[in-house]
Amino acid sequence: MTEQNNNNMETWYRTYGYDRIDEVTVEKYTDSSVWIDGKRNSRNSDHYSYFQTFEEAKDYLLEKTKAKIQWHRQQALNYGKYWNDVLKIEEPK
User: Fold this and answer.
1) C-alpha to C-alpha distance for 75 and 25, rounded to whole angstroms
2) Which residues, other chains included, contact 23 with Cβ-Cβ below 8 Å and sequence gap of 6+?
3) Residue 5 belongs to a domain
4) Each residue's pLDDT tens digit, 33-66
5) Across the chain, where does the E strand assignment appear?
6) Whole-angstrom Cα distance, residue 20 to residue 10?
């Protein structure tokens, strides 16, 4: 893990949720961390991800959203099957 950008601050892009990209000023960074306001942050966490370009941040959000859409489609197919199974249930005689 090599520390980079020791003296120059850079504008990076932080993603949050599925639809938010904020500009942040990164003081220094490594392969796994960025420093903002003197605090170390993981480049990828449960809440935030940091990218050097806006395009990378946007692509990340698009892929994240695409994966969630695919997951929901699969869930809808599963529940559609349950719906059909319930419709076939008959009252005991």
Assistant:
1) 39
2) 11, 12, 13, 14
3) no
4) 999 999 999 999 989 999 999 999 999 999 999 9
5) 10-16, 20-26, 28-29, 33-36, 39-42, 48-51
6) 19
Q: Is the whole-model pTM more than 0.85?
A: no
Q: Is residue 63 part of a domain?
A: yes
Residue 23 domain flag: yes
Domain that holds residue 32: 10-87
The encoded tokens of residue 73 equal 């489609």
The closest alpha carbon to 26, from 47, 45, 3, belongs to: 3
State the Cα–Cα distance between residues 62 and 19, nearest whole angstrom.
9
How many domains does the chain fold into?
A: 1
Q: At 81, phi and psi to the nearest 5? A: -65, -45
Give the rounded distance of the alpha carbon of 22 from its chain centre. 13
